[in-house]
Amino acid sequence: MTDLANTLCAGCSEKLVGEVIRVGESDHFHVDCFKCSQCSEPLASAGFFARNDKYYCSKDYHELFGTKCVVCSSFIEGEGFTVQKRSYHTRCFRCSQCGGGFNSGSRVLFDDGKPICESCRSKNQASTKLNTCKGCNKDITGRSVVAMDADWHVDCFACYYCKAPLSGEYMVKDGHPYCESDYLNLFGQKCKICDQFIVGRVLQAGGVSYHNSCLRCQVCGKSFAEGQEIFTQDGIFWHTECEPYLEGFGESEYLDEEEGESVPGLQSDDVADLEEGINELTVEEN
User: What values do phi and psi take at 167, rounded to 5?
Assistant: First the structure.
């Protein structure tokens, strides 16, 4: 049994007096000190999540680390799964053409990254009158690739930049396919702080891009919420409410928050909101 007389609060590092909350194996908090690491909301009477020795309310945990369903864009809680780097609620994983569900053991096909059932795929093939390669405009015989709503010779479907044939995932920009490496090198934005490519929402100031999670207030150290006014000067950023604590700064300028061009292929626990998507090839035999 832990000797609370010699135990310090994990929140304020003061001695434990009065009502105490034990979290996990060894953390003890004063009731008022047990708060969300992101928004400081009390957690003593609410559900919470733990990650990397920090505690979060449900809202902040999902916004920071959660996974969104690519169909409904809601965070996945409970039953869900990931297929070809795309995450779904079980209820949302349906044929993209007829809306029917998939039974256990059903074969699932993908066309431009979207799931379709065998029945719809057969109907699509039966209704196709022309089988012409989009790359060379010649008739296709033998194996072909279905991508970008068109048929291609296997050798014709290649990266627009390096001309290497594309045999797996590919990215699309201005109607042209690219391999992942060239897409990132040509169009990717890197965060000035961590030097990693940015996927999803981008914060920009003076032509410089940042991850929302990397950019933090110089005064309080917290990140910036969506839609929140942010001030910056000389490479330093702060919340509007923190400005009275800054000294020696002149006029401030607004930091405009906007949706940057999304970079495919780089994902953490979240599903990237890509401008044109990560796509999968479907290979057929004619």
Answer: -115, 0
CA-CA distance, 84 to 190, in Å (whole number)? 25
User: How far is 54 from 61, CA to CA, in rounded Å?
Assistant: 10
CA 234, chain centre distance (Å): 30
Q: How far apart are CA 245 and CA 50, in angstroms?
A: 31
Q: Residues 6 or more apart from 247 whose CB is under 8 A from it?
A: none
Tokens 């979207």 belong to which residue? 114
Q: How far from each other are the two terminal CA atoms of the chain, in whole angstroms? A: 72
For 166-180, write each residue's pLDDT tens digit: 877 888 899 899 988
Amino acid at position 54, single letter: K
Burial of 168 (0-12, 13-18, 19+ CB in 10 A): exposed
Alpha helices in the chain (DSSP H): 58-65, 118-127, 180-187
Which pLDDT score, from 0 to 100, does residue 247 have? Answer: 66
**What's the token pair of residue 144?**
């072909």
The reported pTM is 0.37
3-state secondary structure of 134: coil
| 224 contacts 217 by C-beta, under 8 angstroms | yes
How far, in Å, CA of 181 to CA of 188, rounded?
Answer: 10
pLDDT, one tens digit per residue, over 202-252 is: 777 667 888 877 888 888 888 877 667 778 777 788 888 888 877 654 444
Helix (H) or strand (E) holding 49: strand 48-51
